[in-house]
Amino acid sequence: MRAVLFWSFLLALLLSGCTERKRRNPLDPLALQSLEGMLRELEALAGDGEVVLTWNYTYFDDIAGLHLYRRVGDGPFGRHPAELLSPEIREFVDREVENGTTYEYRLGLVIDGEGEQLLEDSALSTPGREVAWVADRQAGIVWKIGADGRRAHFGQGRFPSLEGMALDLKDGSCWVTDRFFSGVYRISPDGELELHRADIARGGNLAIDVEGRRAWVVDAERQEVRWFALPAQGDSLNLGKIDAIFATPGGLVPQEGGCWIADVEAGRVLYSHPDGERVEFRGLDRPASLASARGGGVWALVEGGQTLMRLDRDGGEMAIALPFADGQGMVEDSRTGQVWVLGASELAIVGAGGDLQGRWDGLEEGVGLDIDEVQEKLWIATRGFLWKFTLSGQTLARLGGFSGLLKVAVDPGEGG
């Protein structure tokens, strides 16, 4: 707060001493350099069948209007819309777009007595149905990211200690747990935040069974795994409880009404269903991250992330040595059975039979990943960046500015 007050005071001093120049157009070489931070350059937010373009040049009184230009690929720029926009306008929604197509936009400022001047900066946008959600633990903010991974719709928080995040793909909402809150937060697709209180001493990991309409949550203080029905009714949640004693419950993977649970210190992974079905694997070395597997199984990272295991509800096991020793997480492409395993600095692609089919390197501090099977895209979170790739390895976007990402989860936009 002190920093904000300081800069506000400093700005007031600058403006009071430069009254006759404060409204000169931004292309004027005499314009104050200190005013640059007050301007919002052209920004483009990709949505489903639309691109929302924003800017702000209302501070200058010698701008008669603005032209917005658009092009596709390497084609020529054309005015879009054709008419001159009022200088007071700060936003334009372009709905004459196709999902999956990349558009480039530029602004032209019409200056009184000087004609039109094109701004050098442009903005790219690729509309689509998908969105990504990321939890920035260090900043305490959960961000909803646009379809192309270049900009955020909004950030919601601040959470003092984010622990879990999961998406309800049926209604597009995001659920969050925090170790300091005795309940679960729901963030609507529009960014509204609501707390559902629950008998949880300290919120831990969180997972949602979209088809089974259950949410599973770890109480990290009591070392319990609880669940509640979706949609959540009222301000307080009615919780069910897994009938098991855990040392340190961690990874959760809902499946067919039940849930796979990794108990790290106890060296076990178990599947438990509220109706009584139970399968348990013991003697595992530090089972941590889990991911759903085709055919009613689960993938688990063990031995500190250097071994990938497949565990099946019929008792079957398969162990796969990874080409690195620091696996952070994984996700299965249910169409092919391939498992994408993220390490701290690289990624391995493992076939359904356990063979190594590909390997990417060059990442820094990988923390999580998710796959969009509908659009066939891979999203990877590192500590400070969110990446979007094609499944062949082409980089589509790299969004920075995060303090310390915890997790990424992708909603392909199919809904319920």
Please describe the topology of this protein.
Elements: H1 2-16, E1 40-47, E2 50-56, E3 63-72, E4 78-79, E5 91-94, E6 103-111, E7 115-125, E8 131-136, E9 141-145, E10 152-157, E11 162-168, E12 173-178, E13 183-187, E14 193-197, E15 203-209, E16 214-219, E17 224-229, E18 240-241, E19 249-255, E20 258-263, E21 268-272, E22 278-281, E23 290-293, E24 297-302, E25 307-312, E26 317-321, E27 329-332, E28 339-342, E29 346-350, E30 356-361, E31 366-372, E32 377-382, E33 386-390, E34 395-399, E35 405-411
Antiparallel strand pairs: 1-2, 2-5, 3-4, 3-6, 6-7, 8-9, 8-35, 9-10, 11-12, 12-13, 13-14, 15-16, 16-17, 17-18, 19-20, 20-21, 21-22, 23-24, 24-25, 25-26, 27-28, 28-29, 29-30, 31-32, 32-33, 33-34
Structural notes for this entry:
Helices cover 4% and strands 49% of the residues. It is mainly beta and 416 residues long. The protein has 2 domains: 22-125, Sandwich (Immunoglobulin-like), CATH 2.60.40.10; 131-411, Methylamine Dehydrogenase, Chain H. The strands form 9 sheets. The protein has a 4-stranded antiparallel β-sheet with strand order 4-3-6-7, with no helix packed on it. Strands 10-9-8-35 form a 4-stranded antiparallel β-sheet, with no helix packed on it. A hairpin with a 4-residue loop joins strand 24 and strand 25 (307-312). The protein is elongated, with a radius of gyration of 25 Å. Residues 1-23 and 29-38 have low confidence and may be disordered.
